[in-house]
Amino acid sequence: MANLHVVRFPSPAEFVEAAKGSDDGFMNLAFGVLMDSMNELQIRVRSITEESRTLLAVNNGDTLVLALLKVAGDVDWIIGCPRDRELVSADAETAISLLVSFLPSVIDPKSFDTIWGPEPLVNAFIDTWVSAMAARGLRIEALPTRFRVKRTYATLATLPPSPPHLPSKYIIELANPDDVEPLAHLLVDFSRAAPIVTSIEAARAKMDMHVRLGETWVCREGSEIAGYVGVGRTTFRTVAIRNVYVAPGHRRKGIAEAMTVALMRYYLGARPLGLEGAPDGRPVKGVKEEICIAVVEDFVERLYEKCGFLLGEHDQDPVSEQKGWFASIIRGVRVLEE
Length: 338
Hints:
Blueprint: E1 4-8, H1 12-19, H2 28-36, H3 40-46, E2 53-60, E3 63-71, E4 77-80, H4 89-102, E5 114-118, H5 119-135, E6 140-142, E7 147-154, E8 170-174, H6 180-191, H7 200-212, E9 216-221, E10 224-232, E11 238-246, H8 255-268, E12 290-295, H9 301-307, E13 325-335
Parallel strand pairs: 4-5, 11-12
Antiparallel strand pairs: 1-2, 2-3, 3-4, 5-13, 6-13, 7-12, 7-13, 8-9, 9-10, 10-11
Helix pairs in contact: 4-5, 6-7, 8-9
């Protein structure tokens, strides 16, 4: 790739226009975070402004091959690469060096802390950043991996042929405003497996917003919420399942699988859905080609494989024959005392 160069986008609309041809499951984290930040409700709730986003890319000519972005208020920088343009080592080294050289022109280098993305890209970025900052006289320590997940996706072609059976006493439907308080407590419990535990105040604010956006689904037994699924990071072609959580008293009853497959079928346009309470017609933001998920714990991989996600060591998309998952990590740096 002889024509690699950095592009800084002054507005999210310009980034979206340039990157929409790179919209796939491997870019959902980066592209989806940006598109979430363009939603009118999220802009109001999160106080997002035009200055809240730093949007960089490395292009080969006019084609995006690597993206680096941050939305103010989010913890991490995000780096991403389209699935069909994975960089070989020499090109990746060049692209990352270009980003590392450019980034100090738009941020204070001391403010850079953590980055999330494909494991090889994150490790290469951290190593290059530490070396480049040392050459500038800034002593920085690379920190070990803080969090690791498998990012994968499913399509209509990988879905199980029919929805799993769920006892009739359970109903899966969109959450409503009365559900925000119990959902907030479930979100706090869910976050205990994440790098940062969510406070109850933050959980209430998040759940209120996502319920209003129609992005949270619940499984009920009578008046009790047995579990929930949260979606988001909706792009032109993809949507992500953010959270799947079943309350301790309702586990080992098939609820997680039933909720997950029902939501997959809804967003991928499959019928029957296997749930009651779904809105009439198509999803508001359209049927998607890929539905994405991040799997944290090894012991739940079997569950998500049953749902149709490509998590096997050699799993490939049956249509594109491209690989089905990648390791994604969060790493950071620490500025040392001078």
